[in-house]
Each structure stands twice: as C-alpha cells, then as structure tokens.
Amino acid sequence: MTLEYQLLFSLALIHTVALASPGPDFALVVKLATQAQRKTALASAFGLAVAITLHTLLSLTGISLIIKSAENIYIVVQLTGATYLAWMGLGAIREAIAHWRDHKQQIITTSTRELSALQGFIRGLSTNLLNPKAMVFFITLFSTLISPTVNLETKVAITLLMFLLSLIWFSFIALVLSKPKIQQKMQRATPMINLITGLLFVSVSLVIINGLF
Questions:
Q1: C-alpha span between 72 and 64 (Å, rounded)
Q2: Closest Cα to residue 12, out of 213, 166, 128?
Q3: pTM check: above 0.70
Q4: What does the pLDDT look like over 5-45, one tens digit per residue?
Q5: Residues 109, 92: contact at Cβ < 8 Å?
C-alpha cells in the first residue's frame, strides 16, 4: 500500500488555513505567550496539538460521528464545551477590567505569569478538545475528503500530519511572542489582549448554546 499524497496535501493546506484563522486556540497561545513564561506558552501549544490529534483519531475511527449522532450525548458535549469556554472567557475579561480599574496596564497579572507548564498544557488541551466546533470541523473535513478505501498507512500519516502542523504553528507563535523584548512591548496591550480573548471565548460559547435551541 502507498500513501495518498494528494489527499495529504489537500488536508495539509486546509488545516494550515484553519490554524491561521483567529479562534480560541490562537487567542489562548497569544495570551499566554505575551503574559506567561515561555515554557507555559509552549506547553499550551503542545496541549492544542495533542487535542487536535485526538479529534483526528476520533474522526478517523468514526467515534466523533457516533457522538454527534447521539443527540443527548452531543448536547452534553456542547454544554460542557460552552461552559468551559465561557468560564475561560469571563476570566480573561475580569483580568482586563482589573487592569483598567487599578491602572496597572504595564503589570502582567501574577496568576497568569505563574502558570506552570502543566497548567499551560491543560489549558491548551481543554480549549480545543472541549470545543464542539472543533469536533464538527474534523467530522466535516474527513467525511468530505476521506473515503472508506483510504488505507491504514495514509490514516496514520494524516494523524501525524495534523499533530506536526499544529505543534509547529502554535509553537512558532509561542516562541516569537514570548521573547522578552516583545513581551515588554506587549505589556501595554495586555488588557486589550485579555478583553479580545475573553470576548472571543464568550462569543464562541454563545454560538454553541444558541445552536442548541
């Protein structure tokens, strides 16, 4: 059996565009890279890549489609994801308000700065894994491009491709934005970054909840 290179190229192109699009994943890495330690931002990038890999595996094995088809289970998944995203979003908004209220725009919040690498990994993993929109994206992508005849080697290659592209992209953002000089320049923008991140998370949460009714 041989790899289906045209399929791999198509998936790589679509996934790269999706990665570069603004969303909760991108916002999380930007926030942590500009406000936390570099290791924390890199850990979040790794967590996001692992979550995307899990979505890939669940979609390739048909488990995600089963979950989406089971109405009650899918509702629970959506509510869980929406709740988590709303909680993260409101937390970021509170941080932004606290900065402006206390006139400490140049001080990175201690809670964010002291996040450990493990906490960064968990935030990255949870932000993507609990986002039902991510699951729907992969179900749609794979059901459209991948036929039942695709061989095992190609499926393994697809899984590795999704992981590596995600890890490289988010790690690149984390490395660039976590440079000391860039962090110092971004300190004034910290409240705005938190506000935009928070509003984005809450907006996605509201869209998910709205889709339930």
A1: 14
A2: 166
A3: yes
A4: 899 999 999 999 999 888 899 999 999 999 999 999 999 99
A5: no
